[in-house]
Design goal:
This protein is α+β, with helices and mostly antiparallel strands and about 80 residues long. The protein has two helices and two strands. Strand 1, helix 1 and strand 2 form a beta-alpha-beta unit.
């Protein structure tokens, strides 16, 4: 496995290049339509995309037990 630090909206890799694409804590900063288009272009057929992100929004009410656990851990 290799990791690449690239622009997630225009990576420079050819079409159908990766079996998997992973990003962490970044999707909230970009236009999702553009980002998903690039990820879709990069993935081989039946490839997998995984995104890790975490956020809290007190305006939406109480967090689920799972989110509350994560919040306690990180805060």
């Amino acid at each position: 496995m290799r990791f690449h630090y690239r622009n997630m909206l225009s990576s420079g890799f050819p079409d159908d290049y990766f079996d998997a694409v992973v990003n962490n804590e970044t999707t909230m900063y970009v236009d999702l339509d553009v980002m998903f288009s690039e990820v879709g272009r990069l993935l081989k057929p039946h490839g997998q995309y995984v995104a890790f992100t975490w956020c809290a929004n007190d305006a939406d009410g109480e967090a689920s037990p799972d989110v509350a656990y994560i919040n306690r851990h990180h805060l």
